[in-house]
Design a protein that fits this description.
By secondary structure, this protein is mainly alpha-helical. 62% of the residues lie in helices and 9% in strands. The protein has a two-stranded antiparallel sheet with strand order 1-2. The chain is elongated and about 65 Å long.
């Protein structure tokens, strides 16, 4: 049995990502699932912002330009992990 060379190991590692990406069919077009997770994550962020405004917490959140994109990314990644991993 021949030893595994570095190039063979690199090819094996690169081939592990060759599975099909999760996608869903909308009117005959296939869309990547991360788009759906991103849209839902943004909508959840809007709901969270309305909740923060209602309980008067948004005044303490600084800087808002970082808080809400990070919150949208958090919701997006959590949805991705829950549904597709």
């Amino acid at each position: 049995m021949a030893p595994i060379t570095a190039s063979t190991a690199a090819l094996l590692v690169a081939a592990t990502g060759c599975s099909r990406a999760p996608s869903f069919n909308i009117l005959g077009s296939f869309f990547p699932s991360w788009i759906l997770c991103g849209i839902i994550g943004i909508l959840l962020t809007v709901v969270a912002r309305l909740f923060f405004v209602r309980i008067r917490l948004e005044q303490q959140l600084k800087p808002l330009i970082l808080v809400y994109p990070c919150l949208a990314a958090f919701f997006t990644f959590i949805l991705w992990l829950l549904f597709y991993s």
